[in-house]
Amino acid sequence: MEKVSDFLNKYEKYIPILLVVVFFAVTAPGTSWGLPTRLHPHEVVKYVFAHLNQGYQFDTEQFLYPSLPKYVMLGVANVVLWFKGTNADIYLAARLTSVLLGSLMVAFSYHLTRKAGGSIFTALLAGILMITNNQMAEDSRFAHNDIYLAFFTTLVAVFLVHYVQTHRRGWLYLAFLAVGMGISSKYNGIPLVAAPMLVFLYAEWRNLRRDFLRAAETVFIGLVLTVLGYGIGTPRALLATSWYFKRMIPAFLNSNTYELSPDSVIGLVGQWGTLIEVIGLPVFILFMAAFVAAVVRLVRQTRSKETEARSSVDALLVFLIILLIVDFPLLISFLRRQRYFLPLVPFVMVLSALFVQWVYRWVEAKQFPRARALQREIVVLCVLVVGYSMLRVVSVDLLFFNDARLPASEYVANLPQDAIIEYTLYPPPIDRKYFTAEKPYPIHFFKWDEEREVLAEQGVEYNFGEAGIEKRKPQYFIIDSFTYDRLEDDFICQGHLNECEFFNRLLAGETNYELIEVFEYRLPWYLPEIAPYFLNPDIRIYQRIPGK
């Protein structure tokens, strides 16, 4: 064991690089999922294509998301096009950028664990827990803005830990800048601006009265850098501030009512089940114990005069502050997608790994009669937790590689060429030039009331249910479970009665369409069940009954 420890100490500088390579190697293969067609909405990338093909302007026509990820992906797209790449290559490059960000988060987790007093083995455990997290494996393969917010949140923690341990304000200013770039990735990052301010107050509390003007100057510069960071990713916010925020703020406020229903439960009560889905039950139990232990450790050692102890406690304080701040929007929100929890994952894994070290060393310090045996059992328990987490990643991988839409696409390609086809929101890949006519089924799920007015002004027809399809009479109708499962919610059903009644009759075999094929994929019994939001819907293909 000593030889292994000496070896790791000698080559420690290569360990973060190794973790980056391992995560990239494990995750990158899934990024080709569904290409050259598009199985996933990729809301951000579609705006990049709109800009490239139609001159669409990010900051003047779309305010649901800030623009930093859009500009990053636009830059990636331009590089791909410079090398004569295709649209599929752009999607792949955008996804690989997410993998790179996820890889760097793994390295940051190792670094943060070490800065918090963790041993090399403990930091390795934190990195391995990151690599074997199913949410990291899933979201790092999507070109979403969530991975960008998670990356900058982790980067803020790195800068703040360096600040509290060195008291060099340059690190604090970098943290403010990273906060701005995080907010420019997703509005959920707005509360993150409190993190550097709270850490600054903690670090400089004794000097505030004595040098208040300098403290005020520091906070002012920090806030300016935050605005600058936001402007780097969303330039219109600086170039036309009043015009931009008059349009951004209503869009931001609308997001608070997204899919809000009478049965919605506030995150303070309802987030725990989603968090278990994100990190797995074993890690969830480990994390909850780690969180309590970290708070107790923080309280007990805050007044410690030992430099090493103070340094570790300062890092713990940063973790807890950011963890609580990042979780705050989720605590008060009624909508909790699994990917929204991604910024929490690095801090969950770091605290969990540190907790294992604390328990391991506590057992050693107490000199129990079975101390060695208990320590071995702790190691075995860690191996089991990592093993279970790895199985969850395998489940994610299998869902990527066996998405039911892939074989469904092959089946659809063999349908008659003169067929008229309609399909719901998440269809299998369809060759649009092959069929006489193919078009999306006109269903629209309203996110907020203002959408009805916008669609009415645009003259868009939608949600006519069975009456509409009987008027159009497509020969084949392809539906996905992501679409029709939403209608099982009573609140959504009441707001879309035509569609709800039609799909209930369709699934019951009571319409003029008969089911001719079903495509579905289920995980093997020995793997943990997971429910990722964008992977592997069931596909049902219907044919119009002749003569109807």
Could you provide a short overview of the structure?
The protein has 548 residues and is mostly helical.
Structure description:
By secondary structure, the protein is mostly helical. It is built from 25 helices and five strands. The protein has helices at 2-10, 15-27, 43-54, 58-61, 68-82, 87-115, 120-131, 134-139, 146-166, 169-183, 194-203, 212-233, 236-239, 241-255, 267-279, 281-301, 307-332, 345-366, 371-401, 405-412, 450-458, 465-472, 481-484, 490-495, 497-507; strands at 420-423, 437-440, 476-480, 513-519, 539-544. Strands 2-1-3-5-4 form a five-stranded mixed sheet. The model has no long low-confidence stretch (mean pLDDT 87).
Ordered list of secondary-structure elements with their pairings:
Blueprint: H1 2-10, H2 15-27, H3 43-54, H4 58-61, H5 68-82, H6 87-115, H7 120-131, H8 134-139, H9 146-166, H10 169-183, H11 194-203, H12 212-233, H13 236-239, H14 241-255, H15 267-279, H16 281-301, H17 307-332, H18 345-366, H19 371-401, H20 405-412, E1 420-423, E2 437-440, H21 450-458, H22 465-472, E3 476-480, H23 481-484, H24 490-495, H25 497-507, E4 513-519, E5 539-544
Parallel strand pairs: 1-2, 1-3
Antiparallel strand pairs: 3-5, 4-5
Q: Could you tell me the number of beta strands?
A: 5
Strand content: under 5%
Q: Low-confidence spans: pLDDT under 50, at least 5 residues?
A: none
Order of helices and strands: HHHHHHHHHHHHHHHHHHHHEEHHEHHHEE
The shape, in one word, is: globular
Mean pLDDT: 87
Proportion in helices:
55-70%
Q: Major sheet: size, sense and barrel closure?
A: 5 strands, mixed
